[in-house]
Design a protein that fits this description.
This protein is an alpha/beta fold. The protein has helices at about 40-50, 65-85, 95-105, 145-150, 200-210; strands at about 5-10, 30, 55-60, 90-95, 115-120, 160-165, 180-185, 215. The protein has a single domain, classed as Alpha/Beta hydrolase fold, catalytic domain (Rossmann fold), CATH 3.40.50. An 8-stranded mixed sheet has the order 1-3-2-4-5-6-7-8, sandwiched between helices. This is Triacylglycerol lipase.
């Protein structure tokens, strides 16, 4: 699969109240999940465009997180060059949240990502993934070398603001991040529907706008 992206430029910005003027909205990069495609992020893309954000959706090259993180790094660089923005917001679904966090933590993304939002991302692993080949989703296995490396030290490094959202149908342990993050549980949304679910979309918009839509927890680094 080749790397492709769709860049959608908003035609109008939401008016800010006179007491809180804001600059042009920063770009947003959306990252789909395991065996997904950019089409999975269409509803969320449309919502960010309506909010005035230049919005880009990456077509990941495969199911191997380091390769995906490298592709995200390339797209973020191109977005910054195209828009002139010094940094972007990064929103990932499912395994896409792991690839996005690897870019931030291991590939220098912390200095160029304003906000990291994950939806339904098994930050600490997903046991059924242990049955998959490593390059086909197996890196989500809790005991994988990839996850051991990703979760060593601070989960939330740098100046980036971190948020992690899950459905009530998903385990709380799986989405845990230490070092400081906004946590939100959305009732009753199946995993695959999260990127098009209005509550998840509203929460992502709030996080990118600088508001924690859930509860901010600052846990000690393990």
């Amino acid at each position: 699969m080749h790397l492709a992206l769709s860049a959608v430029l908003g035609l109008a910005m939401l008016a800010a109240p006179p007491s809180a003027p804001r600059a042009a909205a920063e770009p947003v990069v959306l990252v789909h999940g395991w065996e997904g495609s950019p089409a999975n992020m269409s509803a969320m893309r449309d919502a960010f465009v309506a909010a005035g954000h230049p919005t880009y959706v990456i077509d990941l090259p495969g199911e191997e997180n380091v390769a995906n993180a490298t592709a995200i790094a390339g797209l973020v660089g191109r977005v910054r060059a195209e828009t002139g923005a010094p940094a972007v917001h990064l929103v990932g679904h499912s395994m896409g949240g792991l690839s996005a966090r690897y870019f931030i933590k291991r590939l220098g993304g912390a200095e160029v990502v304003l906000t990291y939002v994950s939806m339904g991302t098994a930050q600490n692993g997903y046991l059924p993934a242990c049955l998959l080949p490593l390059d086909a989703g197996g890196q989500m296995c809790p005991s994988s070398e990839f996850l051991r490396d990703l979760n060593e030290g601070d989960d939330t490094p740098g100046p980036t603001a971190y948020s992690t959202f899950r459905s009530s149908q998903e385990s709380a342990r799986n989405v845990h991040l230490d070092g400081g993050a906004c946590f939100l549980v959305v009732p009753g949304v199946v995993h695959s529907d999260q990127p098009k679910s209005p509550p998840f979309i509203e929460a992502a918009l709030a996080a990118v706008a600088g508001t924690c839509p859930g509860t901010y927890v600052d846990d000690p680094v393990r």
